[in-house]
């Protein structure tokens, strides 16, 4: 579980990285820049794991490779934005967030399941069916 400090720092990084992608370094991303779905920070605030989500289905791996190739320039642009708010600029590690694709896959799998509706079955009791055992008497004066 992340501390409040980690959560605040992650939120700051997410906002500033989005601004870096859109305003400072738009030339690095042809078309749309990747979106940042989640930022996780190590307890010492030295490493930031950034999960990128690409709205374009087939371009996720390409966008991740592009971001990883330009990680140094992204970190420098981020440092210019947050240098007066933090002591240490964290190391940026980028990952592809495939949770949306996984959710779509699970939805498709669940949609393919053929679960028949439960039909009520009435079994007529046969004449030779065993009867319930007699009820024990709890009191001596109890009538059956």
Q: How would you describe this structure to a colleague?
A:
This protein is of the alpha+beta class. It has a domain at 1-50 and 61-91: 2-Layer Sandwich (GMP Synthetase, Chain A, domain 3). Helices cover 40% and strands 14% of the residues. It has four helices and three strands; from the N terminus they run H-E-E-H-H-E-H. Strand 1 and strand 2 (47-53) form a beta hairpin. Helix 1 packs across helix 3.
Task: Please describe the topology of this protein.
Elements: H1 4-24, E1 35-41, E2 47-53, H2 60-69, H3 71-82, E3 91-96, H4 99-112
Parallel strand pairs: 2-3
Antiparallel strand pairs: 1-2
Pfam family, one: RBFA
GO molecular function, one term: ribosomal small subunit binding
Organism: Hymenobacter persicinus
Number of strands: 3
* Rg estimate, integer Å: 31 Å
CATH class of the domain at 1-50 and 61-91: Alpha Beta
- What's the average pLDDT? 84
Task: Supply the CATH architecture of the domain at 1-50 and 61-91.
Answer: 2-Layer Sandwich
Helix-strand string: HEEHHEH
Any idea of the CATH topology of the domain at 1-50 and 61-91? GMP Synthetase, Chain A, domain 3
Largest sheet: 3 strands, mixed
Q: What oligomeric arrangement do these chains adopt?
A: single chain
What fraction, in percent, of the residue positions are helical? 25-40%
Low-confidence stretches: none
* CA-based shape: elongated
Q: Please, how many helices?
A: 4
**In what order do the strands lie side by side in the largest sheet?**
1-2-3
**Gap between N and C termini, in Å?**
65 Å
Strand content: 5-15%
Name of the CATH superfamily of the domain at 1-50 and 61-91: K homology (KH) domain
Structural class: alpha+beta
Subcellular location: Cytoplasm
InterPro entries: KH_dom-like_a/b, RbfA, RbfA_dom_sf
Protein name: Ribosome-binding factor A
Region (Disordered): 115-144
């Amino acid at each position: 579980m992340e501390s409040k400090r980690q959560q605040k720092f992650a939120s700051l990084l997410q906002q500033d990285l989005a601004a870096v992608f859109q305003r400072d370094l738009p030339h690095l991303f042809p078309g749309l820049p990747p979106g940042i779905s989640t930022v996780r920070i190590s307890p010492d605030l030295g490493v930031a794991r950034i999960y990128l989500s690409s709205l374009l289905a087939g371009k996720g791996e390409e966008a991740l490779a592009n971001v990883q190739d330009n990680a140094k320039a992204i970190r420098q642009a981020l440092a210019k934005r947050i240098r007066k708010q933090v002591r240490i600029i964290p190391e940026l590690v980028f990952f592809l967030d495939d949770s949306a694709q996984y959710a779509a896959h699970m939805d498709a799998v669940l949609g393919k399941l053929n679960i028949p509706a439960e039909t009520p079955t009435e079994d007529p009791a046969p004449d030779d069916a065993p009867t319930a055992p007699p009820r024990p008497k709890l009191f001596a004066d109890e009538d059956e």
